[in-house]
Amino acid sequence: MNGLHDMGGMDGFGPVVPERDEPIFHAEWERRAFALVLAMAPHGKWTLDGARFAREKLSPADQLNKTYYERWLEACVDLMLETGLLSRHEIETGKPDPALPRATPALTGEAVLPALMRGSSARVDADIAPRFAVGQRVRARNTHPTGHTRLPRYARGREGVVSIDHGVFILPDTNAVMAGQSPQHVYAVRFSANELWGGRGNARDCVLVDLWDEYLEPVGD
Questions:
Q1: What predicted TM-score, i.e. pTM, was given to this entire model?
Q2: Per-residue pLDDT of the chain (221 residues; tens, 9 = 90+)
Q3: Where in the chain is the domain with CATH 1.10.472.20?
Q4: How far apart are CA 119 and CA 96, in angstroms?
Q5: Separation between Cα atoms, residue 42 and residue 170, nearest integer Å
Q6: Which CATH number does the domain 137-218 belong to among 3.40.50.300, 3.40.50.720, 2.30.30.50, 2.40.10.270?
Q7: In this structure, which CATH number among 2.30.110.10, 1.10.472.20, 3.60.15.10, 3.40.1010.20 belongs to the domain 28-118?
């Protein structure tokens, strides 16, 4: 979807000022919010792409005014409400809702670390033919999906060259809404800075963007 989460190439937001000696967490609640988001994964109610999509759906005001972990926490609460893991009554009272079914099985503290250590990968072991070859000139499709996508706006409609075929991976667009994995090849596509930014780009610079088969079309079509 088009939104303020996809700010690449946009102007007017001021300089990025790195924080000197920035800590991983600025407050204890940030550490707990991060742990809460990770602890929800073993329930299988949403995917990593679904969690990203939930953060993307936050309002423009929230995108600009909330901190990183405030956005993580708000999106996680939204997902728990949508999937029935949490009720509005529980948020408002801080007490269990007797009318809400309990998550089964319960996720104990001892089970969290082993679940996280198992991890998961978006790579798919499937014999799927690539649509494009290394060295081939391609164009990023100029589409404006209403759902989650990993095709940034600044690259849409721009031409580049396939530099690397990473192999087959889950398509985030469908995986975000539990609509299947739609496995396909992912390529590192090289775009010149001039192609992306016009005369403002440095002719010596380029950007490599990882793009799925579905995001690309051959130049000449």
A1: 0.89
A2: 899 899 888 888 888 899 999 999 999 999 999 988 988 887 889 999 999 999 999 999 999 999 999 999 999 999 999 998 888 889 899 888 887 777 666 777 787 778 777 778 899 999 999 999 999 999 999 999 999 999 999 999 999 999 999 999 999 999 999 999 999 999 999 999 999 998 887 889 999 999 999 999 999 75
A3: 28-118
A4: 29
A5: 19
A6: 2.30.30.50
A7: 1.10.472.20
